[in-house]
Amino acid sequence: MAIPSFFVSFTKILVGFCLLCMVHKDFVVAGFEKVRVEHDTNEPHTNGSITTAGTGEDGRSELCGTDLSFLGPPYGNMSTAKMVCSPIWNTFVLRYHQREDNVMTIILSAVYTTGWVGIGFSRNGMMLGSSAMVGWFNRKGHARIKQYYLQGAHVSQVIPDKGELPLNGIPPVVALHGAMIYLAFQAKFEHRLGRQPILLAFGTRYPTGFHHLTKHDDKTAVWFDFSQASVLNIDTSQRKNHGILGLMAWGLILPAGAIVPRYLKHKDPLWYYLHAVIQFLGFILGLASVLLGIQLYQSMKADIPAHRGIGIFVLVLSILQVMAFFLRPNKDSKYRRYWNWYHLWFGRMALFFGSLNIVLGIQYAGAGDDWKIGYGFLLAITLLVVIILETFSCLRRRRDKSNLPSNFQMNTI
């Protein structure tokens, strides 16, 4: 009965994940214009065209034709004709001008009520290791703009006054103009920016003491081509599928397959066929997860050496386990004992490093507390099932021992 309970538990977790990842089709931004998001079913998180009242040619010229003189020099002195202007996400509009010496002036605007607005620069489209400029007006109406280093997914790991954006010494500016907030800053990059992963986020709660950011209300990641002012949404479905396949393989199916021979050996040969089929299915899903990871590395340049290295190591161990199935010696072979050691300990190592890599993947991807809680719940269920089966196994051994005749003696040979 242990195996069906695993599948039922995991199905509930997957349903929960899907519900958490769903985005409402319509929402209203705090009394301002209504924003409608038309989703692409292939990319549920970030894909889709985001249209607002007036984002056609007339609306674009209205948004991008705003006089920026209220920002003051040097940002307010720049002619709107020199600046490239592009609606990028929701009510976010990105303006920029890149000089020949690679100094770029960036002005981000968005509808604002309370809280904070931010733009981040990422190496691979992920939050971890990125740097961001964040601006807001506090409860007293004082303007604040700071650079943050996104060391991790938790709010305590978003560090103020740190980051790798090469600001050139010109003070950044944050200003309110009508219903919009404007963040303006300059940075001198080593090379001219081309296709660059950009993170966008906002939170409606004010930063807390010492300028620690509160959790965002919404976020997205896009590829923005600064040479052509074009937006290409990052396909987060690949990353999500990679995580789900890895979680199913190394968090559910392979551990379940390892439980079978320990607690069902008295059901011979049923335990053997169950073990082989379940582990082979887990191997297929694990291999699919690795192949998706390779695609992510190639498409997003997601250079995460620890996660990638452990994943390759676990894949090698899995292949060795599959080979062991075909190279299994007979029970009376003198090599059978060594094969048993090899199969047992390589399997244990694979399960341990597979679980470790799930944790690393959740951490590096900034997947959030939902995935952590879900995987923790799955581990707890696995541990509970093992405890219950171990208890029944001990009781069965005691019962079998008590049924032996009192004058029975074990054969010492």
Automatic annotation (TrEMBL):
<keyword id="KW-1133">Transmembrane helix</keyword>
<keyword id="KW-0732">Signal</keyword>
<keyword id="KW-0812">Transmembrane</keyword>
<keyword id="KW-0249">Electron transport</keyword>
<dbReference type="GO" id="GO:0016020">
    <property type="term" value="C:membrane"/>
</dbReference>
<feature type="transmembrane region" description="Helical">
    <location>
        <begin position="349"/>
        <end position="367"/>
    </location>
</feature>
<dbReference type="Pfam" id="PF03351">
    <property type="entry name" value="DOMON"/>
</dbReference>
<dbReference type="InterPro" id="IPR006593">
    <property type="entry name" value="Cyt_b561/ferric_Rdtase_TM"/>
</dbReference>
<dbReference type="InterPro" id="IPR045266">
    <property type="entry name" value="DOH_DOMON"/>
</dbReference>
<feature type="transmembrane region" description="Helical">
    <location>
        <begin position="309"/>
        <end position="328"/>
    </location>
</feature>
<feature type="domain" description="DOMON">
    <location>
        <begin position="90"/>
        <end position="203"/>
    </location>
</feature>
<feature type="transmembrane region" description="Helical">
    <location>
        <begin position="243"/>
        <end position="264"/>
    </location>
</feature>
<keyword id="KW-0813">Transport</keyword>
<feature type="signal peptide">
    <location>
        <begin position="1"/>
        <end position="25"/>
    </location>
</feature>
<feature type="transmembrane region" description="Helical">
    <location>
        <begin position="373"/>
        <end position="395"/>
    </location>
</feature>
<protein>
    <recommendedName>
        <fullName>Cytochrome b561 and DOMON domain-containing protein</fullName>
    </recommendedName>
</protein>
<feature type="domain" description="Cytochrome b561">
    <location>
        <begin position="208"/>
        <end position="398"/>
    </location>
</feature>
<keyword id="KW-0472">Membrane</keyword>
<feature type="transmembrane region" description="Helical">
    <location>
        <begin position="271"/>
        <end position="297"/>
    </location>
</feature>
<dbReference type="InterPro" id="IPR005018">
    <property type="entry name" value="DOMON_domain"/>
</dbReference>
<dbReference type="Pfam" id="PF03188">
    <property type="entry name" value="Cytochrom_B561"/>
</dbReference>
